[in-house]
């Protein structure tokens, strides 16, 4: 296997994007904050935007951003969106980063069960250490939380197996690397759209105003038919690696 940055191999950009798209529901790609900040993040933080190649093919990838964080739970960003904003704006204001925040990691569906997500996270951690960053954190999007969209994240995070590890596979991956839960990321992503857009993103129909369970969502989406507006506020889980 070979690890490269996306800047090293721009010819694989579309392939890498397809790997990431396999793992997330469509509505996730309509968050306005990444639309405004991701291009700058890619420009500033290419060292932390990596792909794993196997015989020249993209099998996994991940990225992170360096952020200022003082180590206190109260100083954590409110989630994924806020971490991205903090990283970019701190870089533009010449505020030193102290911490790497993992933003996403994905493995191609045909390459599951090979430990590739751990490879990605370990490589990003190594790069953070080499750059002198003191902490590594992540706003996790737990793999199975969409099965329990009405359960608060802090309650879900406390559900464990007999061996003491989380019931959630993605949380377990981080726990096995020594990560500990810091708390919830209450407004990790906020996605808004018209009723028609939400119907398109979810392949559902929303005939009346109310809260709905939608495929792939960790929380409920609020649809207001009269105002032609839907909003989804996703709660994630902050963890810190050793």
UniProtKB/TrEMBL annotation:
N-acetyltransferase domain sequence ranges: 1-209
InterPro entries, per the entry: Acyl_CoA_acyltransferase, GNAT_dom
Domain of life of the organism encoding this protein: Bacteria
Protein name: N-acetyltransferase domain-containing protein
